[in-house]
Specification:
Number of helices: 11
Helix content: 25-40%
Number of domains: 2
Strand content: 5-15%
Distance between the termini: 48 Å
Oligomer: single chain
Shape: globular
CATH topology of the largest domain: Rossmann fold
């Protein structure tokens, strides 16, 4: 059995590849722009790259790229692939997901897979803890973090837990063929996440509450307008309202989901200005 791991440069894929290698599970790395020996080219938006990447593969860890999802499903079926594990998003569970820029592409790939003969496992994480890396520039430059909804809740999940969950469903047939809503262990506001980050780094982190319009203007050029609007709507809907957390990570990995504090400890250096050491 050989496993194709797409998105080889993504944090979840890198963690998954480490687990597969450590346990001697045959696998193949794939990337739109291969930059390591043995990695094959597989651009999920370019069907001409699919056949070579899928040759001899029986399982696939797949990122959600909707533009050529139908072609990928067709090629995977023809290649003899039996099982696809999709890294989707819990945003597909929300009302109106098909019309949401946050969810539409994930939902489209889910639907393409579920309509195919391929056995499909859906990993639906909530917010990635790594989204906090978006604050690193402000911290390093000594500026306050700008938040339009500091009281908005999220369920930050560590990418290592997602990699372990993917490994579990790829290697244990009893776990395959289901949908899993994966979250961190706690519902945390953005303000609380910053407080945790400051505590680990040893210095309080200031933030300023800004208007939605101001935040959108600041991210223009980095986040497309419709996506920024969808994020603002998402945060507004969860302002002051805790989100549901699940035990799916523990079900799949055998241990509780890692806390946001653990994630910060694992990535603390990404937030420190050059030349500043831990206290």
């Amino acid at each position: 059995m050989s496993i194709l791991v797409t998105g080889a440069r993504g944090s979840v894929a890198r963690g998954l590849v480490s687990l597969l290698a450590a346990r001697g599970v045959p696998h193949r790395l794939a990337s739109r722009e291969p930059d390591t020996p043995g990695t094959v080219r597989c651009d999920l938006g370019d069907p001409s790259t699919f056949a070579g990447a899928l040759a001899g593969v029986r399982s696939v860890f797949l990122y959600a790229e909707a533009s050529a999802a139908g072609a990928f499903v067709k090629e995977a079926s023809a290649a003899g692939v039996e099982h696809v594990v999709l890294l989707s998003s819990s945003s597909v569970l929300a009302p109106g997901a098909a019309d949401s820029p946050l969810a539409a592409s994930h939902l489209a790939v889910e639907e393409a897979l579920l309509a195919s003969p391929l056995r499909t496992t859906l990993l639906r994480p909530g917010s990635f803890a790594s989204n906090a890396l978006g604050w690193a520039w402000a911290l390093k430059s000594g500026r306050p973090v700008h938040l339009p909804y500091p009281g908005s809740h999220g369920d930050p999940v560590h990418e290592a837990d997602l990699a372990e969950a993917a490994f579990a469903v790829l290697t244990d047939p009893a776990l395959a063929g289901r949908a899993y809503h994966l979250t961190g262990p706690h519902s945390l506001t953005f303000a609380t996440q910053l407080a945790i980050l400051g505590r680990v780094l040893g210095s309080p982190i200031p933030f300023e509450t800004v208007t939605a319009e101001q935040w959108k203007a600041e991210v223009e050029g980095y986040i497309p307008g419709p996506y920024a609007d969808a994020l603002l709507d998402y945060w507004a809907a969860r302002d002051g309202l805790p989100v549901e957390t699940t035990d799916a990570v523990e079900q799949l990995t055998g241990h509780p989901a890692r806390s946001f504090e653990t994630w910060v400890q694992d990535h603390a250096e990404a937030f420190r200005a050059e030349g500043v050491s831990a206290r």
